[in-house]
Design a protein that fits this description.
Strand order of the largest sheet: 5-8-6-7-9
Number of domains: 2
Strand content: 25-35%
Largest sheet: 5 strands, mixed, barrel
Structural class: alpha/beta
Shape: globular
CATH class of the largest domain: Alpha Beta
Number of helices: 11
CATH topology of the largest domain: Spore Coat Polysaccharide Biosynthesis Protein SpsA, Chain A
Length: 330
């Protein structure tokens, strides 16, 4: 998927302008998959610190070269159906981001009361075709809240695609993450030198573990729709975020010929009175009898069993493993 993410953006920007923030386990594979990208611009976090430090490091790196450069944050787990409209939307977002101290987020009109996505409330009742001032962000509401947002008509899903100038993002981080921003700035200052790797290893783990949504967007939106300079650009290019089991189920259901909404990867299947299940057990025969809306994922060292309703809580299990330092389960 990271190859697809880069490929659909190449008509807008050459390979030398791409930066990828990943982890040590994936860097070698990414370099093989994307050989045209500069190796020095595929950076591995020494420790996962969420999206604010990752995109923040990119901002401070580019700030040294061109403070007015527009940065786009593009997660690699998105599916885009209409790539031409996608690029047209990105180019419009770039124009808005370059026009001042503006932050642009692409908003997706919700098709259901999804609890796994963040929501963007925009100002005004009628929704226009161009950018709309953002009133507030709400991260992953409960079912009742999500239903109310969809019914209200002035909410969008937060796509996780953001655009801003290097200067705008760096200034926002200095304001809202005053402890982390100097660390990122010091790391960026060492880029290109022999001490870069050691500086990254020493300072990056000290950065706050926080998403850019919580670190920048939410506090900035509290300034109000007129002073926050955050704009939602409605996007309609067939977007899907495969970052959750529910989204993955929905994506496969659209392409699957299996009946009753079951998505089952296995050596063979038997289904009786079962609906809406997602099962990944590629090395086993699967029988689903009298069960609905389950998520079952079988890997070499772990077995996940949950419901699609509670699939968003999988992160709590991961946090438990990290807390207990259970990195090897077998």
């Amino acid at each position: 998927m990271i190859q697809q993410t880069v490929a659909r953006l190449l008509p807008i920007a050459p390979a030398r302008r791409f930066w990828i923030i990943t982890n040590g386990d994936l860097r070698s594979a990414i370099l093989k998959q994307l050989p045209k990208l500069p190796k020095a611009q595929v950076l591995a976090e020494p420790m996962g610190r969420n999206t604010a430090p990752a995109i923040g490091l990119a901002a401070f790196l580019l700030l040294r070269e061109n403070p007015d450069a527009v940065i786009g944050m593009f997660p690699s787990d998105h599916v885009i159906a209409d790539e031409n409209t996608y690029r047209e939307t990105i180019e419009r977002a770039m124009e808005i981001a370059a026009a001042g101290e503006n932050i642009v987020v692409l908003g997706i009109r919700p098709s259901r009361a999804e609890t796994g996505y963040g929501y963007i409330e925009v100002a005004g009742g009628a929704l226009g075709k161009d950018a709309l001032p953002v009133r507030r962000f709400t991260e992953k509401p409960d079912a009742d809240q999500a239903a109310a947002f969809v019914a209200a008509g002035n909410y969008f899903w937060n796509s996780g695609i953001f655009l801003w100038s290097a200067r705008t993002l760096a200034d926002a981080l200095r304001e809202h993450l005053p402890k982390t921003a100097p660390l990122l700035e010091e790391i960026a200052a060492a880029f290109g030198s022999r001490k870069f790797s050691a500086t990254l290893l020493k300072l990056y783990p000290k950065c706050e573990n926080i998403s850019v949504d919580y670190a920048v967007l939410e506090p900035r939106s509290l300034k109000g729709e007129k002073k926050g300079n955050i704009f939602c650009l409605p996007a309609a290019f067939g977007w899907n975020d495969l970052g959750s089991w529910n989204a993955l189920h929905a994506h496969h259901t659209m392409k699957s010929s299996q009946i009753d909404g079951n998505v089952i990867h296995s050596t063979g299947i038997f289904v009786l009175n079962g609906k809406g299940n997602y099962v990944h057990a590629p090395n086993k025969f699967v029988a689903a009898i009298g069960v609905s809306d389950l998520v079952v994922v079988d890997t070499l060292d772990a077995l996940l069993i949950t419901t699609r309703q509670h699939a968003q809580d999988v992160g709590k299990a991961v946090a438990h493993l990290d807390e207990k330092k259970l990195h090897k389960l077998t």
